Amino acid sequence: MLLATKFHRPLTVGRLTKRPRLDMRLDESLAAGCPLVLVTAPAGFGKSTLVSAWLQRQTTPSAWLSLDSGDNDPGQFLSYLVGALQIINSALGASQASRIQTAGVADSEAVYADVLKILVNEIAAQPAPFILVLDDCHLLKTQPVLWLLNFLVERQPTQLRLMLLSRENLPLPVSRWRVRRQLVEIRQADLQFSLAEAEDFLREGMGIRQLTERDILILEQRTEGWIANVKIGGAAAVNQPQPPSVPR
Questions:
Q1: CATH superfamily of 4-191
Q2: Which of 42, 46, 128, 222 is the one with CA 20 to 30 A from 202?
Q3: Where are the beta strands (DSSP E) in the chain?
Q4: What is the pLDDT of residues 131-148, one digit of tens each?
Q5: Cα angle at 66 between 71 and 35, to 5 degrees?
Q6: What is the pTM of this model?
């Protein structure tokens, strides 16, 4: 049985700081038909929040899959991949579910490769584009699963707009995809709060009004725009007369 919550898009609770410069890049990638968006940054930079909030404003159908360490088993990875695709169309991968579950140890590699080929063909037959987000891709470590993911990207139908979110650089041929202009990348430097975004986050998002513009500038510089530390520093500032020292 698949765990339903792995298909739930992260909730965006409360007021979010608008990030039009990043939203525009995602909008442009979708309009241009870019097959792959790669969002890479350590924890606390707002990767999932950015993409989840952006998806809420889209009319293109989308599905979300949050990965975990258990998905290093290729059978489980494919089962959840099929589950995510069936959010778009319940017929996608329906004929392959039993093959994934009953593949024998001796022939599993060949079976999984064939299943993925059939999935790619079924995706290619879809009448309209859709977005698939795979979150926490850094948790994928085993070669069989990385091979499956790489195969999906390399043979990606035009109907599929794939978004990979990761805390680390993925052991995939990203350089080759760059050369082919096959992807749009959003990295740590892009996700760092600008001064204006930090001010909006602190004043409007967290309701902290007592900080001066200079206080916010110091906090933004100390945290280097790291959203998690901006939040920590802002919370500490409520009970401190001076901008707090925050972890580097």
A1: P-loop containing nucleotide triphosphate hydrolases (3.40.50.300)
A2: 42
A3: 36-40, 62-66, 130-135, 160-166, 183-187
A4: 999 999 999 999 999 999
A5: 95
A6: 0.89
